[in-house]
Amino acid sequence: MRLSKCWTLVVGILFSPIWSHAAGVVINEIMANNVSGVRNGATYSDWLELYNPSPTSTTLSGMSLTDNLSQPKKFIFPAGTVLGPGQYMIVWCDQATVPGEFHTSFSLSSAGEEIGLFSIGGQLLDSLRFGIQAVDLSIGRSPDGVDNWVLTQPTPLAPNAASSLGKNTRLSMNEWMASPASGEDWLELYNQEDLPVALGGLVFSGKSATPSTNRPIPALSFIAANGFAQFFASGLARTDANHLDFKLSASGESLTFFAADKTTVIQKLKFDKQDKNVSQGRIPDGGTNVVSFPAGKATPGASNLQPITSVVINEVLIHTDPPLEDAVELHNTTGDSVDVGYWWLSSHKIDAQKYQIPAHTIIPPFGFVVFYEYQFDFDGLDKGRTFRFNSAHGGECHLFTGDAAGTLTGGHVFQKLGPAQNGFSWGRCPTSHGADFFPQSQRTFGVDSPASQSEFRLGTGKTNAPPKASPLVISEVFYHPLSSDPLVDNWQDDFIELHNATPSVQLLYNLLNDPFNVSNTWRLEGSVSYALPIRTGCPADGYILIVAFDPMVETARLASFKSRFAVPDDVQIFGPMSGRLSHFTQTLGLFRPDDVQVPPHPDAGLIPMVLFDSVQYENAAPWPSAANGLGASLHRILATDYGNEVLNWRAGPPTPGRGPGPAAPAVFSSVDFSSGEVNLQFHAERGVSYRIESSDRLVEAGMIWTSKMVFSAGPVDRGQVFSEPIPQGVHQRYYRLVAPGD
Predict the structure, then answer these.
(1) b/e string for 290-314 if b means 16 or more Cβ within 10 A?
(2) 493 φ, ψ to 5°?
């Protein structure tokens, strides 16, 4: 299927005439297990980052990278490759060939390996041997350029950000197979911590000797928060970091997992005779209940629990005063009735069996069921098995499948919950890219303005309300400014614009918490963060800018910024934000301080930070590519609509402090042809009329267009889809989307 519009992008490359050879360029960051962390176009490839800490530009032409030090020239930098002073360069470790990018043709191993940077003459300039890599995390020098490698959050083309680490005492041998039909024996490690954990130096052993004499896990090995890592008990058939120097016995064995001192025991495991090709593991992950998984049902490197596909956690209320109480709503997403009798609700993944749903609890097709606090937090003799939610910290809500005997049967779904305002629930909100869980604009349990708790408990659930609209929103993001010099990342032009979409002044702090010394302010959090200043307000329909530099100190830069972007004089500008906006994937959240917790609350004195607005942008479709280094910024279309909805954002010239710029050109966002029908999707902006036209012929003097349909201006600002069957005998058809001014 062909589209009528063809956009041609011409990128000019300006090479600096000043450089020197190999003046200290180093390998600065590595990401070898990039599952969903940093997207480059349509893929998530491994990558490494080079950094030039020197004060002069350095030519890389003829230098090489390798993942095998005995073969130094696996990837050679082409002529004209220069890295400016203090600048970064990304090299993608995959087989792709993309103009303007570097791709090595070799990948990195998540099980660990050694990489090297060589001079033109074959001299080793820099190298690193690393171990097991955690999913979607990187390792990097801290600080940049210094010979101190740590676990980091992925920060391509930006300063490295060290990741906090959890304790190794909550690591668990979670699944094992001692009699595989083919291949090596294996066991799986699970991290119960909400932080990643360092594995380097820890020891698996099949012997009783103390201290252990087995090979420790190599340095720079990590496991992700709540993550999994598979180890092969191969007798060190390979020297990779995930291979052990012993094998498992199919007749049964006792294993010990030691700390780095080779004496302190983290966990012991004993298993009996193993059936062929059958693994055993814990349900839930990290728990005490051990079950066998039939042949073909093993889950190495992944959760032993399987996703529930028929029922979702739809709404959760965690901050309540009478006549309300905490509540959990489940929703059946299928056209068949689902019996959830004997299933389990819990606030914790490991301690799953807290509240068992009564037998024969049926959720009708596309229907709901609600469970209330008096049920899952009752004052009975079995109080220890019940649970409650923490409104100040948030937490998690888990649903597990089970049977009449009380046994967990392996199905699981959960939702993470942040702190909540009193009376406002968290709820599932479908988007064009899936579904988020976000504070709701109103409760939808069925009886939502009750006179008593007994009346509230009559609610049986209903469709969720829209997400809660924030008075202050993220309205513009300039995350990858165009640079006049391709060697220089113009990151100091980055900015985030906040907009007060209400007709009154919005205070950026909670006056009730501390009226005399107000310091509990709204915060921007994510890969960048910034706490708005004390005693600050945003005027009605006004704007605030958060920039990458300090406007109070760098006055010349501030004047230049305001002049270049025509920022109105009355717009407040704050900075610097910590970190840098990512050129790849970035999650931003805007948090408002809630009322301080007072006695007898166990968290008396705590000021919860409640999520009010968020967006996660990416540098590839369906997000507009014009914002990725081509001069445009991301503009929110409607402040009152949900922030993390790609259809509510468009690209346009940066207009910091001046509101949205001109409407984006009318373009199709996706084209699908199947079963003899074409489906064209585009974004329709409020107040704009659209017409779809088609032509079956391409004529040199021009096309003959036939109008297909008109979308009139109206109150809806959403994605639109046009579909039509293609008649027999038509082998090509051209379409164009026309809006006024196109």
Answers:
(1) eeebeeeebbbbebbbeebeebbbb
(2) -90, -5
Tell me the pLDDT tens digit for each residue of 130-163: 999 999 999 999 999 999 999 999 999 999 999 9
- Residue 379, pLDDT score: 63
Instruction: Give residue 57's Cα distance to chain centre.
Output: 34
CA–CA separation, 448 vs 460, rounded Å? 11
Question: Beta strand pairing status for 102-103 and 88-93?
Answer: parallel
Mean residue pLDDT of the chain comes to: 88
Left, alpha or beta for 242 (phi > 0: left; psi -120 to 50: alpha)?
alpha
Query: What is the Cα–Cα distance from 722 to 13, expressed in whole angstroms?
Result: 40
What confidence tens digit (pLDDT) does each residue in 47-88 have? 999 999 999 999 999 999 999 999 999 999 999 999 999 999
- Our measurement of the distance from residue 120's CA atom to the centroid of its chain's CA atoms, rounded to an integer in Å, reads 39
One-letter amino acid for residue 453 of the chain: Q
Sign of CA dihedral 346, 349, 350, 353: positive
User: At 659, is the pLDDT very low, low, confident or very high (cuts 50, 70, 90)?
Assistant: confident
| Closest of 537, 546, 534, 531 to residue 497, by C-alpha | 546
Nearest to 573 by CA among 540, 541, 548: 548
State if pTM tops 0.85: no
Amino acid letter, 452? S
Better-scored residue on pLDDT, 651 or 224: 224
Q: Using the predicted structure, report yes or no on whether residue 1 has a pLDDT greater than 70.
A: no
pLDDT in tens, 663-675: 555 667 777 777 7
Q: Of 40-49, 183-192, 240-249, 700-709, give the lowest mean pLDDT range.
A: 700-709
- Calpha distance 19→2 (Å, rounded): 45
* pLDDT tens sequence across 521-548: 999 999 899 999 988 899 999 999 999 9
Matching residue, tokens 């809500």: 397
Exposure of 453 in the CB half-sphere (CA atoms within 13 A): 12
533 DSSP 8-state letter:
P
Q: Is 245 in contact with 214 (CB distance < 8 Å)? A: yes
What's the sign of the alpha-carbon dihedral 293, 299, 300, 305? negative
Token couple for 402: 């089970």
- For residue 653, CA distances in Å to 34, 482, 502, 566, 619 come to 32, 11, 24, 12, 16
Which of 229, 230, 203, 228 minimizes the C-alpha distance to 218?
203
Element (H, E) at 439: strand 434-439
The pair of three-digit structure tokens given for residue 695, joined into one six-digit string: 């032509």
Placement of tokens 């790849």 in the chain = 584
Q: CA–CA separation, 426 vs 418, rounded Å?
A: 8
